[in-house]
Protein: PhzF family phenazine biosynthesis protein
Organism: Streptomyces gulbargensis
Amino acid sequence: MRIRIVDAFTDQPFSGNPAGVLLLESFPEDDWLRAVAAEVNLSETAFAHPLPAGGEADWALRWFTPTTEVDMCGHATLATAHVLRATGRTDGPVRFATRSGVLGATAEDDGSITMDFPTSSLTPVAAPDGLARALGAEVVAVHDTAAHLGDLLVELRDETAVRSLAPDFAALKGMSSRGVVTTAAARRPDAGYDFASRCFFPAVGIDEDPVTGSSHTALAPYWSARFGRDDLTGLQGGARTGFVRTRLRGGRTLLTGHARTVIDGELHA
């Protein structure tokens, strides 16, 4: 059985966010999917199988962290679309049936892939007790992304504060159902991106996710309202980084990035 490791939201190997991708004929038992994801031990492993022609989606898609199945994952969706395109399994737009509804992915002329995701809602909330201490940084504002993501979106003072975080992951674990997304405006207007972010998800077994597509469905409306523009670019990551181009289109957020296959091998299980 072929398994691929794809670096998403980057055109360079060993950067962006790596995801495992397995193309199947059907979904095996959940215990097997969880065991494979634990063995791969990346933030997410994607499992996909083709659906009958004529339906609302072309492929069924599920995502697992090393410990649990998740409702939405951007970088592993990008990685899956990249593999389908690279292997000739699709030569046009592809629609995925997921726990978050039907998600689309379209290849662009420059080799990037644009995904169509639902935009997250944002509700201002008070900072949970101990949040600033757990992050080790001053908190400027906090928004709840509700059930759509299950994250807290936390604005910090500046990009330097975001990039230098060394959180207490055990303390962050109970702050939200999925994780904490930290963000700040880019330190320079000519930086090539508009905002920076880092994402911490210890509640689902991922201390830090290098480049999180799904979080940009909340980051996009947050910073678009601040900057007065619907088209933005985000830089995410600490040790590994990647870029996500975002475009707001009504209740949908378009997420664009590149991907690069770095490992293509056989799974003996």
In short: The chain has a mean pLDDT of 96. The chain has seven helices and 18 strands.
